[in-house]
Amino acid sequence: MLSNPSSKYRAYPPIHLPARQWPSRTLTKPPIWCSVDLRDGNQALAVPMNVAQKLELFHALVKCGFKEIEIGFPAASNTEFAFNRTLIERGHIPDDVTVQVLVQAREDLIERTFESLVGAKKVIIHLYNSTSPAQRRVVFGKSKDEIRDIAVRGAQWIQDRIPRLAKGGTDVRLQYSPESFSATEVEFAKEISEAVMDVWQPTPQRPMILNLPDTVEVAMPNVYADQIEWMCTNLRNRDSIIVSLHTHNDRGTGIAATELGLLAGADRVEGTLFGNGERTGNLDIVAVAMNCYMHGIAPGLVFSDLNALREIYERCTGMTVPARHPYSGELVFTAFSGSHQDAIKKGLAEWEEKNSKSESCWDVPYLTIDPADVGREYREVIRVNSQSGKGGVAYLLESEFGIELPKDMQREFGPLANDAVDALGREVTAAELKGMFWREYIERTEPWELIHFHADGVDGTFSCRASARKAGADVALTGQGNGPIAAFVHALNAAGTPKFEVANYREQSLSSGTEASALAFIQIKLADGRTKWGAGVDTNVELAAIKAVLSAVNRAG
User: Span 40-62, mean pLDDT?
Assistant: First the structure.
């Protein structure tokens, strides 16, 4: 890298817009959505989708609720042309869905495009030519007037052919893109757009779409917003124009540029699922729609099962959604940090209580939306690795297996589990955590292992008879107390164990039905002030408690 990058690079000049309005606006409704997965996304793939893959993804997009879908560049290849014909001839396009096709301002390509659309019900023909100074100079070697003439000729070629489709009952709408708009002088973008408007003659009843793409991100997103507001303010016949956005992500701010562009007055958004596209990708249309959703705006798109949609996308495109991708990545609703886990666990508990009474909006720490709204489960939220704490451990045991650890026991077992996970050096599953708990508490049989226990009581006085094995030898135990547990504690103290008393006791059911098991938790306090927890499982509640006492004694050493 250069020590002085200003010798090679320069910031994009700001737009003169002293009365800008977008910074003080708030979004209150969703834009018109258009998916460009099958064109812009497809052309960015190392191996473009075949007809079958494009068809599967098309149906997935329809299921999500897209009413405008750019299906391809039919003049680009036989595969693209064949896909158009497959959709139209086999009746795959619902009546309420408009398909969009892209074409350059060349007459032979426009003719081929019209051939591909014969028989379609509703179409958008999307004309483009590039307009930026670099494109004019380096690629075309043409002046502004010559570039404008290219757009006007292309618009006229399209206008001349519309009656052919209209005669067959096709509803044709028109769209123009000054490609590389983000790097084009706004005055020239306005000039060339209005020149196309002069050919197409849009009206408020029959508007055209003017797509103003952030083809390559060359500035901060606020500059793009200024460009959009400048165009919306200065364009002639603004009420006859649907202003559309099409952002890319070269600077990593494609989503921000789109949202600010909507504040600046745009009506429509083009993008792809999960941001697939050339270089750093197109706009992630899922993220923008879900951002609307989390602010209480119904986006008009449905992503109730993001996992399934992600699987279709990855299968069809060969791309992979990153684990940290907003809303849709594997880990976006996951917390490994102990303090985060504890906050999420408490927030979910509060939400469940208040939601049952319809008392609150969603306000759970670290979770911008309810994962269930996009088909995720709470068990995906909290996962455990060496960075996790007692909250995450307790949450997984409870959510997966119904094991509700007492608070003090969480503080004891959490660090033990954390040390074990740290030694493994990886994330652990809930089943592995349960195994750790079982080995630490339930399966402790050294030095004491219970063989038999029986207790009788009258008027609050109980006596117990038990047998246990210690160091390979059978030991008979007898004791008295005000309950079976107290009698057993008396028996163990009499047998020479370190003196202790029961400080805490809790029990719960692990399952229901005839095979239901009881899980007992007991905390003992030793004469030196130390405390230890134990746990026991049995179909008999009394025996579960007795086993928990021995578990605690064994752990006390």
Answer: 95
Side chain identity, residue 453: F
**Could you tell me the two tokens for 393?**
């451990």
Task: Spell out the domains of the chain, with CATH numbers in brackets.
Answer: 28-317 (3.20.20.70), 338-440 (no CATH), 448-556 (3.30.160.270)
* Contact partners, residue 24, CB within 8 Å, separation at least 6: none
Query: What's the pLDDT tens digit per position in 111-154?
Result: 999 999 999 999 999 999 999 999 999 999 999 999 999 999 99
Residue owning tokens 């897209």: 66
pTM above 0.85, yes or no: no
38 contacts 69 by C-beta, under 8 angstroms: yes
**Measured at the alpha carbon of residue 53, what is the angle toward residues 52 and 58, in degrees to the nearest 5?**
100
The tokens describing 381, both together, are 């939220």
Query: Tokens for 283?
Result: 């706009």
94 sits in the region (left: phi over 0; alpha: psi -120 to 50; else beta) called: beta
Asked if 273 and 279 touch (Cβ cutoff 8 Å), the reply is no
What residues have CB less than 8 Å from 175, skipping those under 6 apart? 100, 124, 125, 126, 127, 208, 209, 210, 211, 244
Three-state DSSP class for residue 242: strand
CB 123, CB 173: distance < 8 Å: yes
Structure tokens, 223: 């500059």
Give the span between the Cα atoms of 471 and 200, in whole angstroms: 96
* pLDDT score, position 380: 58
Alpha carbon separation from 73 to 39, 131, 256, 270, 276 (Å, rounded) = 6, 20, 28, 15, 17
Laid out side by side, the sheet with 531-538 consists of 500-509, 518-526, 531-538
- What confidence tens digit (pLDDT) does each residue in 389-405 have? 667 788 788 888 889 99
The answer to whether the CB of 446 falls within 8 A of the CB of 554 is yes
- E strand residue ranges, 300-447: none
Q: Distance between CA 447 and CA 222 in Å, rounded?
A: 70
